[in-house]
C-alpha cells in the first residue's frame, strides 16, 4: 500500500504543478489578457494591451536576424536599417515599391546645371523627438559625423563629398557642393546612411563620436520613437504622435527576434505574429504554406541577383573560353524552377531587369553542355580540370545551386569542389582573392547602375571593393568613370548598356538568377509592399491591420 | 584542514586554471581566418578606414601583446567593448546571462523534482513495471534531440492546445520588470508584479522541460544505480527490520547515502547548462548566453568570446567547489583533504 502511495504522490504532484502553471493562460489567436486568473493583483499596473490580431493598432513583426545596434552611421546590418529608417528621417526617402527618391525633410531642391551644387529647402515643420527643429545645421552635423566615423556610411559619401562640402545658407536651406559630378548623388541621400541625427548628440560624443551612446538609443525625427529594447528579444516602437508628417496608424510595433524559422512559422499560423521577415522562410517552406487560410504570400520583383564570381587571376579561369564554358554549364531553368520554385528569373548581367540602365539585349548563355565541352576543347582542356566554389554557410538555396553545378560540370569533365565557410571567413577569403569561384548575391542600396557596376567591374574595386572576379578592362573602367560624371541620362544609359555587353562576352561573373522577393503575412495586414532594393524596408508608418 | 582554508585553497587554484583558459581561448580565436576590423567597418568601408580601425583595435600588434593588453584591462575589471553591439561587453552579458541562469535554475528544479524520485522508485521497484517505465522514460529523454523535442512540444502545447506560449521570455505586450537580478521571475516577485511573474513562469515551462529532458534521464539512471548499491547494505535491512516506514528508509537513509554520485552529476550538468544551450535557445527564442556566444564567434567579436569563455569557466569552477563543500554536509565523515 505504502509503495503505491509514493508513486501516486509524485505523479499527482507533477500533474498538479503542470496544470496549475498551464491552466492560467490560453495562447490563442488573440492572447488578449495575459494571466487571466490573476486580475486581482493587477491593481497598480496598467493592464497589458491586447496583442496580435485582437488589436488593430499593435503589429508584431518577427525576424531571426539579431539587431546589432541602432547607430545609423555605424551599422551595415539590414535588421538595423529596418528600425533606423523608422526612427529617423532623411532629406529624401524611398517609399513603397518605388526606387526613385521622394521629398522628406527637403521639401524641394535645386541642382545646378553642372551637376555639382545641390540646394535643399527644408520643411519647417520637421521636429526631432525632443521637439527641436530639424535645421540645416542638423543636416551638416549628420553627414559630418557619418564621414568622421568612417564606416559603411562614409564609404557611400566620401567619393564625392567631404566635411567641407556643406554651406548653411539659412536655418532651413543648405547647399551641398560635390567634388565632381556624381549622377546618383540624390539617390544616396535616400539611403539609411543619410539619416539625420539630432545635433544634440554632440553632448554625448565621448571618445567615439557617440557610437556607444547611440547604440541603443535614438535621436531622430521619424514617425516612430524607440520605446524599449530587450536585447535578443524585441524592440518596441511607438508611433510618434507629434510627427510632423502623417501619424502612423499602427501605434505599437513589436520587432521580435524569433531565432528559429519553424517556430516563427507556427507563430504566424497561430496569428501571434503578423508578418515574417522575408529572409526567414525558404522557397519550399513558402510553397507548402501556400493556400493556408489567413496567410498571404506576397511576391514582388526584387533587385537581388545571385552571382558567381570567377577569379580571373587564377588559372585556367583567366581563359575567356573556360569562363564561357562554365556559363554554358549552369542549368539556369532548373535553378529557377526546381531550387527557387519559380521565385527567380533569368538575367544576363548585374543590372536587374526593371532598373535604369538594364540592357535587355545582353547575351545570355543557355544551358548547353555540348557547347561548353566544345569551348573547353578549344581552350585545350578537353580532359577537364579541377576547381572549387566557395559558399557561405546556412544558405540552403546557395548550397543547392552549388550541388547542381557540381553534377552538371562533372558531365563535361570539370571536378567542382564545394567549400562552405562561415561568413567572416568567406568574406576574408573572397576579398583577398583566395577563391576560384564564389557564389554570393548582390542587392543595390540605391537604384543606379553605377552602384552595381562600379563595385563589380571597376579595377579599383578589386577585392575589398567587391570586384570579386578581379576583373580589369580599361575600356570598362573608362566607361564607368564617364557614366559617373555624366549628367545626361540618355548618354548614361548607353554607357551602362555597353558595359553590360562587354562583360557578357568576357564573363567575369555568371548570374544564376534575379530573385523575386517573397514574404509571408497574415491576410489582415494591409499596405505592405516590398521595395525591390530596400527589401528589408517594412513601411510600418503607413500599414494597417483590418 | 578546515572548511575555510580548503575553500581558499580551491579559489587560489582557480587562478592558474583561468590563465590557461584565457590563453587558449585568446590564441585559438586569433587563428580564425577573417579580419575583425573588416567586419566592424561594414561592406562599403574602404581600405583606409579598415587600416585605421585595425590600428585602433590594436590588431597590428603581435598576438601575445594583444593578449597582455587584454589581461591588463581584464584585471581592472574592463571586459572591453563589443565590436558587434558597440556596448561594453559587460552590458551585453548582464542582458543575456540572467536569461540563461533563470532557465538553468528552472530546468535543474524540474530535473531534481522528477529525476531523483523517479530514480528512487526505480531502484525500490527494481525490474517491476514502475522501473521499466522509468527506464524507458529516461532513455527517451536522453535519446531525443533537444531541437526535435522542442518543436514537438511547440506543435502540441502551443499550436494545437494553445495553452503555452511559443517564444521569448514574456508575453509580447508586457514590459519586463525592473532589473534587479535580471531573472524575470525573481524580479517580478521582488517588485510584486504578479502578471509578469505568471507570464515569466509560463514562458519557462517548455524550454525548461526541453532542457531538462536529457538531465532527467541521466539523473534517474544515476540515482537508480547508486540507490541499488546502497539498498543492498546491511543498515538498510536493519532499518527496515526495525520497522522504519519505506519512505523514511528510502529517502532518509538510502538516498542520503547514495547522494554523492548524484550530486557530482548534478553539479556537472548545472555548470554545463550555464553555458547556455544553443538549440533550446533557438527553438524557443530564449535570449541566452549560448546564442550570444555563437553570434560573437560569427562576427569575430573577440572581447565577447573571451568574456563568455571566462565567465563560463569561473562558474564551472565555482559550481564544482560548491558541490565539493556540499559533500561534507551530506557526509560529515569526509575530510577536506
CATH level-1 class of the largest domain in chain B: Mainly Alpha
Can you say what the CATH homologous superfamily of the largest domain in chain B is? MetI-like
Number of E-state strands of chain B: 0
- Quickly count the domains of chain B: 2
| Strand residues, percent of chain B | under 5%
Q: Low-confidence parts of chain B, pLDDT < 50 over ≥5 residues? A: none
Mean of residue pLDDT values of chain B: 87
Note the beta-strand portion of chain A: 15-25%
Mean of pLDDT of chain A: 87
> Over the alpha carbons, how many angstroms does the gyration radius of chain B reach?
24 Å
User: What is the general shape of chain B?
Assistant: globular
**Helix/strand/pairing category of chain A:** alpha+beta
CA radius of gyration of chain A = 27 Å
Helix content of chain B: over 70%
CATH-assigned fold name of the largest domain in chain B = MetI-like fold
The SSE string of chain B, one letter per element, is HHHHHHHHHHHHHHH
Largest sheet of chain B: none
Number of helices of chain A: 15
Low-confidence residue ranges of chain A: 18-52
**Whole-Å distance between the termini of chain B?**
7 Å
Beginning-to-end CA distance, first to last residue of chain A: 61 Å
Pfam families (chain B): BPD_transp_1, BPD_transp_1_N
Family (chain B): Belongs to the binding-protein-dependent transport system permease family.
Transmembrane segments (chain B): 12-32, 103-124, 136-159, 200-219, 262-284, 304-327
Keywords (chain B): Cell membrane, Membrane, Transmembrane, Transmembrane helix, Transport
Can you describe this structure?
The complex is a heterodimer of chains A (546) and B (337). By secondary structure, chain A is an alpha+beta fold. Chain A is built from 15 helices and 19 strands. In chain A, the strands form five sheets. Chain A has a six-stranded mixed β-sheet. In chain A, strands 8-9-10-1-11 form a five-stranded mixed β-sheet, sandwiched between helices. In chain A, helix 8 packs antiparallel against helix 10. Chain B has 337 residues and is an all-alpha fold. Chain B has two domains: 74 residues, no CATH class; 235 residues, MetI-like (MetI-like fold). Chain B contains 15 helices and no strands. In chain B, helix 5 packs antiparallel against helix 12. Chain B starts with a helix and ends in a 7-residue tail after the last helix.
Amino acid at each position: 500500500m505504502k509503495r503505491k502511495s509514493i508513486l501516486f504522490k509524485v505523479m499527482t504532484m507533477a500533474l498538479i504543478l503542470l496544470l496549475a502553471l498551464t491552466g492560467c493562460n490560453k495562447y490563442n489567436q488573440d492572447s488578449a489578457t495575459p494571466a487571466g486568473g490573476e486580475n486581482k493583483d493587477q491593481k497598480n499596473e496598467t493592464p497589458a494591451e491586447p496583442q496580435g490580431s485582437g488589436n488593430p493598432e499593435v503589429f508584431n513583426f518577427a525576424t531571426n536576424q539579431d539587431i546589432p545596434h541602432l547607430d545609423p552611421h555605424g551599422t551595415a546590418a539590414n535588421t538595423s536599417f529596418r528600425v533606423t529608417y523608422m526612427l529617423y528621417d532623411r532629406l529624401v526617402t524611398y517609399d513603397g515599391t518605388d526606387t526613385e527618391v521622394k521629398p522628406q525633410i527637403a521639401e524641394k531642391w535645386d541642382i545646378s546645371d553642372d551637376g555639382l551644387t545641390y540646394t535643399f529647402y527644408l520643411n519647417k515643420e520637421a521636429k526631432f523627438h525632443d521637439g527641436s527643429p530639424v535645421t540645416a545645421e542638423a543636416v551638416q552635423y549628420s553627414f559630418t559625423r557619418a564621414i568622421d566615423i568612417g564606416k559603411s556610411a562614409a564609404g557611400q559619401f566620401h567619393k564625392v563629398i567631404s566635411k567641407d562640402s556643406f554651406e548653411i545658407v539659412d536655418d532651413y536651406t543648405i547647399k551641398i557642393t560635390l567634388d565632381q559630378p556624381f549622377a546618383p548623388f540624390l539617390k544616396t541621400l535616400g539611403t539609411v546612411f543619410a539619416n539625420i541625427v539630432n545635433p544634440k548628440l554632440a553632448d554625448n560624443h565621448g571618445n567615439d563620436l557617440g557610437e556607444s551612446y547611440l547604440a541603443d538609443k535614438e535621436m531622430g525625427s521619424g514617425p516612430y520613437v524607440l520605446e524599449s529594447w530587450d536585447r535578443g528579444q524585441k524592440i518596441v516602437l511607438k508611433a510618434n504622435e507629434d510627427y510632423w508628417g502623417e501619424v502612423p496608424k499602427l501605434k505599437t510595433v513589436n520587432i521580435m527576434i524569433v531565432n528559429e524559422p519553424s517556430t516563427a512559422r507556427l507563430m504566424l499560423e497561430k496569428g501571434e505574429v503578423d508578418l515574417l521577415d522575408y529572409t526567414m522562410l525558404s522557397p519550399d517552406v513558402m510553397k507548402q504554406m501556400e493556400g493556408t487560410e489567413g496567410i498571404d504570400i506576397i511576391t514582388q520583383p526584387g533587385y537581388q541577383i545571385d552571382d558567381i564570381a570567377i577569379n580571373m587571376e587564377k588559372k585556367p579561369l583567366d581563359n575567356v573560353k573556360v569562363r564561357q564554358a562554365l556559363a554554358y554549364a549552369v542549368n539556369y531553368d532548373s535553378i529557377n524552377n526546381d531550387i527557387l520554385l519559380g521565385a527567380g528569373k533569368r538575367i544576363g548581367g548585374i543590372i536587374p531587369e526593371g532598373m535604369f540602365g538594364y540592357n535587355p539585349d545582353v547575351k545570355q548563355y543557355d544551358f548547353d553542355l555540348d557547347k561548353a565541352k566544345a569551348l573547353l576543347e578549344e581552350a585545350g582542356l578537353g580532359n577537364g580540370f579541377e576547381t572549387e566554389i566557395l559558399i557561405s554557410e546556412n544558405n540552403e538555396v546557395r548550397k543547392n545551386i552549388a550541388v547542381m553545378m557540381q553534377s552538371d560540370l562533372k558531365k563535361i569533365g570539370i571536378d567542382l569542389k564545394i567549400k562552405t565557410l562561415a561568413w567572416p571567413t568567406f568574406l576574408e577569403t573572397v576579398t583577398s582573392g583566395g577563391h576560384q569561384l564564389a557564389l554570393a548575391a548582390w542587392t543595390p542600396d540605391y537604384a543606379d547602375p553605377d552602384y552595381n557596376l562600379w563595385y563589380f567591374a571597376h579595377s579599383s574595386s578589386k577585392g575589398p571593393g567587391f570586384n570579386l572576379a578581379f576583373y580589369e578592362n580599361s575600356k570598362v573602367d573608362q566607361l564607368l568613370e564617364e557614366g559617373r560624371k555624366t549628367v545626361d541620362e540618355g548618354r548614361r544609359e548607353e554607357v551602362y548598356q555597353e558595359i553590360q555587353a562587354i562583360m557578357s562576352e568576357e564573363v567575369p561573373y555568371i548570374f544564376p538568377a534575379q530573385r523575386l522577393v517573397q514574404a509571408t503575412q497574415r491576410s489582415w495586414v494591409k499596405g505592405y509592399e516590398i521595395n525591390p532594393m530596400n527589401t528589408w524596408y517594412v513601411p510600418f508608418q503607413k500599414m494597417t491591420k483590418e | 584542514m578546515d572548511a575555510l582554508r580548503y575553500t581558499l585553497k580551491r579559489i587560489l587554484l582557480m587562478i592558474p586554471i583561468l590563465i590557461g583558459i584565457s590563453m587558449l581561448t585568446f590564441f585559438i580565436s586569433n587563428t580564425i581566418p577573417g579580419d575583425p576590423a573588416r567586419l566592424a567597418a561594414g561592406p562599403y568601408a574602404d581600405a583606409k578606414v579598415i587600416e585605421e580601425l585595425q590600428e585602433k583595435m590594436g590588431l597590428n600588434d603581435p598576438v601575445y601583446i594583444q593578449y597582455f593588453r587584454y589581461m591588463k584591462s581584464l584585471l581592472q575589471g574592463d571586459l572591453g567593448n563589443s565590436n558587434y553591439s558597440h556596448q561594453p561587453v559587460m552590458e551585453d552579458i548582464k542582458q543575456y546571462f540572467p536569461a540563461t541562469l533563470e532557465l538553468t535554475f528552472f530546468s535543474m528544479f524540474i530535473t531534481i523534482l522528477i529525476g531523483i524520485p523517479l530514480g528512487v522508485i526505480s531502484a525500490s521497484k527494481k525490474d517491476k513495471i514502475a522501473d521499466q517505465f522509468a527506464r524507458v522514460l529516461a532513455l527517451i529523454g536522453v535519446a531525443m534531440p533537444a531541437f526535435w523535442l522542442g518543436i514537438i512540444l511547440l506543435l502540441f502545447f502551443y499550436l494545437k492546445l494553445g495553452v503555452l506560449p511559443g517564444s521569448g521570455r514574456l508575453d509580447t505586450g508586457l514590459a519586463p520588470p525592473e532589473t534587479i537580478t535580471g531573472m524575470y521571475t525573481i524580479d517580478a516577485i521582488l517588485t510584486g508584479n504578479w502578471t509578469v511573474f505568471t507570464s515569466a513562469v509560463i514562458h519557462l515551462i517548455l524550454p525548461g522541460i526541453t532542457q531538462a529532458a536529457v538531465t532527467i534521464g541521466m539523473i534517474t539512471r544515476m540515482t537508480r544505480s547508486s540507490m541499488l548499491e546502497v539498498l543492498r547494505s546491511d543498515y538498510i535491512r536493519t532499518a527496515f527490520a526495525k520497522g522504519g516506514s519505506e519512505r523514511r528508509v528510502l529517502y532518509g537513509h538510502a538516498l542520503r547515502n547514495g547522494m554523492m554520485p548524484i550530486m557530482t552529476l548534478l553539479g556537472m550538468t548545472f555548470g554545463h547548462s550555464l553555458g547556455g544551450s544553443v538549440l533550446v535557445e533557438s527553438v524557443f527564442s530564449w535570449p541566452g548566453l549560448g546564442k550570444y556566444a555563437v553570434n560573437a564567434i560569427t562576427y569575430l567579436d573577440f572581447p565577447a568570446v573571451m568574456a563568455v569563455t571566462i565567465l563560463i569557466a569561473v562558474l564551472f569552477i565555482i559550481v564544482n567547489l560548491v558541490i565539493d563543500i556540499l559533500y561534507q554536509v551530506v557526509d560529515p565523515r569526509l575530510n577536506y583533504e
